[in-house]
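Quick one, tokens below:
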């Protein structure tokens, strides 16, 4: 509930965080790294058979290493603070959105 309140509030909502990413190159670079690591880790968690099936079905653009936290393709955008917070709490300190939330 606390994160939902942040998303909808006026202290640390999604629009404010996206504005920061668009205007702070260091913050954006940190998020690019967080998204890159997330995509790589997710891909590594799949079995060889799973990766083969993803590629066979043509899903690699959606499930491959190129997708970041919450499936994001554009690192300056945020779907929800919940996924970023979970990513940060899992130990990924480059996720500044999760850290802020």
């Amino acid at each position: 509930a606390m994160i939902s309140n942040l998303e909808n509030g006026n202290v640390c909502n999604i629009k404010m965080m996206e504005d920061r990413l668009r205007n702070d190159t260091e913050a954006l670079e940190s998020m690019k790294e967080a998204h890159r690591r997330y995509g790589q880790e997710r891909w590594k968690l799949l079995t060889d058979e799973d990766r083969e099936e993803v590629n066979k079905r043509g899903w690699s653009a959606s499930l491959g290493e190129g997708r970041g936290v919450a499936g994001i393709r554009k690192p300056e955008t945020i779907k929800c603070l919940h996924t970023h917070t979970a990513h940060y709490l899992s130990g990924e300190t480059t996720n500044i959105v999760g850290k802020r939330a």
